[in-house]
Please model this.
Amino acid sequence: MMNYFHYQYVDARFDGEMDVKLTNWGDPLEPGDYELRLMNDDAYVLLAKMAFTIKP
Model:
């Protein structure tokens, strides 16, 4: 099982765009390196990932 601190549903969309607003996840993220992952519906099948950094 993988550790995570939040998830957001994409409503089974096949394409398009989605805003990922870090403010929707509660407290602001601490500075550091993170990874955003797109997973298959109702499964832990990784479809895509993107690294990002929160700077102080």
User: Anything to note?
Assistant: The chain has a mean pLDDT of 76. Strands lie at 32-39, 46-54. The CA atoms of residues 29 and 54 lie 7 Å apart.
